[in-house]
Specification:
The complex is a heterodimer of chains A (about 280) and B (about 260). Chain A is mainly α and about 280 residues long. In chain A, about 80% of the residues lie in helices and about 0% in strands. In chain B, α7 links the parallel β7 and β8. In chain B, α3 runs parallel beside α6, α5 crosses α6 and α6 runs parallel beside α7. In chain B, the strands form two sheets. Chain B has a six-stranded mixed sheet with strand order 6-7-8-3-9-10, sandwiched between helices. Chain B has a four-stranded antiparallel sheet with strand order 2-1-4-5, covered by helices on one side. The chains are: A mainly alpha (about 280), B alpha/beta (about 260). At the A-B interface, α5, α6, α7 and α8 of A face α2, α3 and α4 of B.
């Protein structure tokens, strides 16, 4: 496999983890987060610093995941106080806060980022396989949660928090759980990314990237794991396959987002469902 | 008899208005209590204090011996309180059956960790199917609850309340918006709930149905209890008649 293919598959794996984990927060539990990139970045920086200090690769990934989850739970507390649209604005703020903060911190490399992150020791191929295995595990976890009573309660909280409370469901606890799980996975993806590139800069984790992740979720079909996986793969490959798309990436993704919201609010998953129903009819 | 619900000297004011002003009531297990009062008497506020969506300025709410004054609605529900809303709030995107299954699984959804570790739904599905039959919703199990007519949505609320294995159910104007036939059937369903030993508190505007079905009547006016006892005796009381029945005339006279 060429270095390019290895790199492309690794990026696909990372984007799948990120989009599927965002879907747990925004799709399953209905908490619109436009700052997922910040948690991705938090994990990347946590892994880089841990690795530089300890040279312990597994510990670095554990740190990335834990720091991502903790940051998510802190932001999740905001979701207890504000309603959906304000939460979206709050999370945008969190993303800007993250990038603005990191840029000014010398110990985080400031504008220059952190380079020379020690290698994981797995090599390019090994890193790719590890990323893809984590992506598969994330998909499996997402499918499991959706089938479990947790997914059931998430759907209730997503639709009507107060009605959920009258069924004994503590909406606040579930929202924190969704943020905790989703951002832990984003942190993990950040850790994997740090070892994939061995060089991180804050621009990778900006608000635009968070919007791109949300585009994957919405275009795939908010709440549908498989739809989101397909969209994450397609939106990663599209700019690679069509050079023009790469040049006008934001324009194309923004346009797709508007088209999907306007014409097919259920995204790819909704379209697939409609086609299956139509095909099943005699 | 043991008290399922005790309200001790509850008071809350909004701005300068005392919405609830020193209400003390004790409701015993198995009772069927009607709560009435003219508009603005404080019924809804009192129910909100009991359900936990309004925090009282003073007083206590004691549910089955536990002081629940400071805890959330969800925790009160898990301690045996169930409520139906005046404006129905089913999960519209879920099927009728799933709405009830979710309620029946209240032990599994008590916290996210337990919910994450639970998958099977067989027991809850059986219980939900049984309740569907009991409230007269058989045949609607697979329909999206958002597609039901109002009368059936109100029954769905009752079904969800029953699935929580409650000790007491607060019905907030369950007859509002129903036609006469639907209202009569709803009253029958509520009476059936009470016949199973579940305590019922019925907040209702439809005085005729309340008088017909309740065995105890509590009348609120200006945030205070002005009548409490057997329905006929309470309604015969001069103060109650003046406040409740005569309120329309009095307000007209003032204008």
């Amino acid at each position: 496999m060429s270095a390019y293919e290895i790199s492309l598959l690794s990026v696909i794996g990372l984007n799948v983890i990120l989009a599927v984990s965002l879907n747990m927060i925004s799709g399953f539990c209905g908490q619109i987060s436009l700052g997922h990139g910040a948690f991705y970045g938090t994990g990347a920086y946590a892994a880089a610093l841990t690795m530089i200090a300890t040279r312990n690769f597994p510990l670095s990934l554990v740190c990335a995941t834990t720091v991502g989850a903790l940051a998510g739970i802190v932001v999740g507390f905001a979701s207890l106080r504000v309603r959906s649209d304000f939460l979206a604005v709050t999370t945008i703020g969190v993303n800007f806060l993250f990038t603005g903060f990191v840029r000014k911190q010398g110990w985080l490399g400031g504008e220059m980022g952190i380079s020379g992150i020690p290698a994981s020791g797995l090599g390019g191929n090994g890193n790719m396989v590890m990323i893809l295995l984590f992506a598969v595990a994330t998909i499996a976890l997402s499918l499991y949660i959706n089938r479990s009573w947790m997914g059931f309660a998430f759907r209730a909280v997503s639709e009507d928090e107060n009605a959920a409370a009258t069924l004994g469901i503590n909406a606040g606890a579930y929202k924190l759980a969704a943020f905790g799980i989703g951002t832990a996975l984003a942190g993990l993806a950040g850790g994997l990314y740090a070892f994939f590139t061995q060089f991180i800069t804050v621009d990778t984790f900006d608000f635009i990237f968070s919007v791109l992740l949300m585009a994957m979720v919405v275009i795939g079909g908010i709440g549908s794991t498989f739809g989101v996986v397909v969209a994450a793969i397609a939106l990663t490959l599209l700019p690679e396959a069509i050079r023009v798309v790469n040049d006008y990436r934001l324009l194309v993704f923004g346009g797709l987002l508007v088209l999907v919201i306007r014409l097919a609010p259920g995204g790819l998953a909704g379209l697939a469902r409609r086609l299956t129903v139509r095909a099943a009819k005699p | 008899m043991t008290a399922v619900l005790q309200l001790e000297d509850l008071a809350v004011h909004f701005g300068g208005v005392n919405a609830v002003d020193g209400v003390t009531v004790s409701i015993a297990a198995g009772e069927f209590v009607g709560l009435i009062g003219p508009n603005g008497a404080g019924k809804t506020t009192l129910m909100r204090i009991v359900s936990g969506s309004v925090r009282p300025d003073r007083g206590r709410v004691v549910l089955a011996g536990n002081d629940v004054t400071g805890i959330s609605t969800a925790s009160r529900v898990r301690k045996g309180l169930a409520l139906t809303h005046q404006i129905v709030r089913p999960f519209r995107e879920m099927t009728v059956l799933d709405n009830i299954v979710l309620a029946a699984g209240y032990r599994r959804t008590a916290n996210p960790l337990r919910a994450a570790l639970s998958v099977g739904r067989k027991r809850e599905c059986e219980r939900a199917a049984e309740i569907l039959l009991r409230v007269g919703l058989a045949g609607t199990a697979d329909k999206l609850s958002g597609s039901l007519p109002l009368g059936q949505m109100k029954r769905l609320e009752v079904a969800r309340a029953l699935a929580l294995d409650p000790q007491i159910v607060l019905f907030d104007e369950p007859l509002a918006g129903l036609n006469q036939t639907e209202a009569a059937r709803m009253v029958e369903t509520i009476a059936d709930v009470n016949a199973q030993g579940i305590t019922v508190v019925l907040v209702e505007h439809n005085l005729e149905e309340v008088m017909r079905s309740c065995r105890r009547l509590i009348v609120l006016n200006d945030g205070r209890v002005i009548g409490d006892g057997a329905p006929q005796a309470v309604m015969a009381d001069a103060i109650v008649r003046e406040a409740y029945v005569g309120s329309g005339t009095a307000s007209h006279a003032r204008h």
